[in-house]
Design a protein that fits this description.
about 525 residues; alpha/beta; 18-stranded parallel beta sheet; seven-stranded parallel beta sheet; about 15% helix; disordered N terminus
Length: about 525
């Protein structure tokens, strides 16, 4: 009997040990490639987020512009929109400012209010509330905004929109080739450039040879007009200039896509605002219908909360969103962090996402509302990290076409099924190369032989991803449609690819990551 018990215990222990996370071979390969200064098979996502992850989001100390000093009054059932706009203009004129909301409910889109978005531009502008909890600051939007073009369902503006003044300027074609991970371009002219300036490198080329290479053997449908006829391969990567020496320009961040000068890569200046923030605010909309995808402009975006456009080194944190059908959108920006935000209320169209941006960090986002499109990416977004994000089993991970690349779903938890990746048919595929799923936990029902390049529908087309440590429900993948499928069913070490890459680059894990990691979903 004792022998049998020892045998049973030994077998149980062996089974337990076998289920423990093993160190990833994919990770070890990345480390060795870094040591040898080789081009890495995994993208380096460690430069994502506010100031490339190297600094904590600050407690800004700019001049305070209290909305109550401009005529706003909490809880009086009167519109506070005009007072809010006056405070914004005063902060913009000052060159910086904290637009402060004390405790209470403020009304920003009442029946007789202007039906245009509230626009904010300028550097160092922070919207600060008194907390997103029960006794904090609530910004309420009672009425929807109409579309700019009723025939185009996606043209409803956001209630609050950040942008920047100025125009982008073409500087020069890029005259050298770069591997992934390199930082220095050569130009025919550097006139108009300076250290610390933000720029972007740009490619739009319909070369059949280039398209074939970028598609990694996947077929281009004749109805994909954007990649086939209009823009071709379309890439936009934002960078900050570290130094200029002669005709050489060095960036702080490595390129995440190879640059081949023969395809006519170009460099432009980037008109942007920096050090913009949104914090400690509860946003509340009035969206209460049963959502129908693409029914009309109201359903697709009549209640859209915040658009963060043309921003660099900016952030949103500790905010909540209730009853919106589009939550928040980081558009045409770089190194923006959106962290510790909660979404509740009536399900709608889309959650928090990034489009046409570089190195956006979406961390500790809890989408409890089951938006049709979960947190994700769209357009020429490059280097986005979704870190420890959670959404419900009723929705699926999102990639919204128009050529996003190099996206990391890192320790993400939620549904995983065909049918929710968006984007117009002409803008397919849904995702290009370097989609990485790292320790993804699936919470819906299991599927067998799951396809990333669907044979069942035209709208689910993702180039073969790298998948490491996928676990949860028990879904299996079509092996021919996956670049890597390591440790399927069991998480791996390191638990978080972003954390480990950042630690490898900086020598230690920054304190802000440790603190954010401690926050638990309720």
């Amino acid at each position: 009997m004792i022998g049998k018990n020892i045998y049973a215990f030994s077998l149980l222990l062996a089974m337990t040990l076998s289920l423990k996370a093993q160190e990833s071979k994919t990770w070890n390969t990345f480390v060795q490639q870094k040591k040898k200064n080789q081009e890495t098979t995994l993208p380096d996502f460690s430069y994502a987020g506010y100031h490339r992850g190297e600094k904590s989001i600050p407690n800004a100390q700019y001049k305070i512009f209290d909305v109550t000093d401009f005529g706003a009054k909490a809880n009086d059932n009167k519109s506070d929109r005009k007072a809010f706009i006056k405070a914004i203009r005063a902060a913009e004129k000052n060159g910086s400012g904290i637009i402060f909301f004390p405790e209470g409910k403020f009304l920003l889109q009442e029946k007789n209010d202007d039906i245009h978005p509230i626009l904010i531009s300028g550097n160092k502008i922070v919207l600060r509330g008194s907390g997103s909890g029960e006794n904090g600051t609530k910004l309420f939007f009672a009425n929807d905004l109409p579309p700019k073009d009723p025939k185009k369902l996606w043209t409803c503006p956001y209630f609050i929109e950040f942008s920047a003044k100025g125009k982008d300027q073409y500087i020069s074609d890029i005259t050298n080739n770069l591997k992934k991970g390199e930082k220095t371009v050569k130009l025919s002219s550097t006139k108009g450039l300076k250290k610390g300036q933000w720029i972007y490198i740009y490619l739009s080329n319909t070369s059949e040879k280039l398209v074939e290479h970028e598609m990694c053997g996947c077929h281009v449908d004749d109805k994909w007009l954007s990649i086939k006829k209009k823009k071709g391969i379309h890439i936009k990567e934002f960078h900050q200039i570290k130094s200029i020496k002669g005709n050489k320009v060095e960036f702080y961040e490595p390129v995440m896509h190879r640059v081949e000068s023969k395809y006519n890569w170009k460099l432009y200046t980037f008109a942007s605002s920096e050090e913009v923030g949104i914090e400690d605010i509860a946003f509340e909309g009035n969206w209460k219908d049963n959502f129908v995808h693409h029914k009309n402009p109201l359903h697709d975006g009549g209640y859209s909360a915040v658009k963060m456009g043309r921003l660099v080194n900016s952030y949103m944190r500790r905010c909540s969103f209730h009853n919106f059908n589009r939550i928040a959108h980081v558009a045409g920006s770089a190194n923006v962090s959106v962290v510790n935000c909660v979404i509740t209320g009536t399900p709608g169209h889309s959650s928090i996402g990034a489009s046409a941006s570089s190195r956006v960090f979406l961390g500790k986002i809890d989408d409890q509302s089951s938006q049709w499109h979960a947190p994700g990416v769209a357009s020429t977004t490059m280097g986005t990290v979704l870190w420890r994000v959670r959404y419900t089993e009723k929705t699926s991970f999102e990639s919204h076409a128009s050529q996003p690349r190099a996206t990391l779903f890192d320790c993400v938890e939620g549904g995983f099924f065909l049918g929710r990746a968006g984007g117009a048919r002409q803008n397919l595929p849904n995702h290009m190369e370097d989609l990485i799923l790292w320790n993804f936990k699936e919470t819906d029902s299991a599927e067998e032989n799951f396809e990333f390049w669907s044979s069942k529908t035209w709208f689910w087309k993702l180039l073969p991803p790298t998948i490491v440590g996928f676990h949860g429900a028990g879904t299996t993948f079509n092996a021919s449609q996956v670049k890597v499928d390591e440790s399927h069913g069991t998480p791996v070490k390191p638990e978080s690819l972003y954390e480990e890459q950042l630690k490898l680059r900086l020598g230690k894990l920054p304190q802000w990551v440790k603190e954010l990691k401690k926050i638990e979903f309720k």
